[in-house]
Design brief:
- This protein has a three-stranded antiparallel sheet with strand order 1-2-3, with helices on one face.
- The longest helix is centred in the middle third of the chain and has 21 residues.
- The relative contact order is 0.17.
- It contains one helix and three strands.
- With about 80 residues, it is an alpha+beta fold.
């Protein structure tokens, strides 16, 4: 039985008030994106999308980028 490798991916998740869904983005995978009605559903959809991406990349023998250090920061901008 082959052992499985566990990889971690940084995921940005945010509420889209217009569509009324949670939207996720995986920056290291070309900003792979999906959504769900709940945070949990959006994250489950993201796991499935990542698996699909990795399977397709392996089939095509494409390299997967490694995670880089990234932070989400809040900045203030004065508007007229």
């Amino acid at each position: 039985m082959a052992s499985k490798t566990v990889r971690k991916f940084k995921v940005l998740i945010e509420w889209d008030p217009k569509a009324e869904v949670w939207v996720t983005y995986v920056p290291v995978l070309g900003h792979l994106s999906t959504y769900g009605d709940t945070r949990e559903e959006a994250l489950a959809q993201t796991r499935e999308a990542i698996l699909g991406y990795l399977e397709a990349a392996a089939k095509e023998e494409l390299a997967i980028a490694t995670e880089s250090e990234a932070d989400i920061v809040e900045i203030e901008v004065a508007t007229p």
